[in-house]
Specification:
Blueprint lengths: L2 E3 L4 H6 L7 E3 H11 L10 H14 L8
Antiparallel strand pairs: 1-2
Length: about 70
Amino acid sequence: MNTIDRKQYPELDQLLWDTQARFLTEKDALDVYERRWSFVDKSKLVAAERTLIQQLAQRAGGFLPAGG
């Protein structure tokens, strides 16, 4: 996975309210999730987005949200 299409992940799309960039690198996506995690509506995370977050965290050695 080289780039991530924000339009495929509803919560990521919401987190990126301040930019129009559609595609992100894995590192940039993980950075957004880490910095703005408190704004994620965990009840709205679809299975594909939960999987994405877990994969990003495993690959980059980043955070894995509690209850994630």
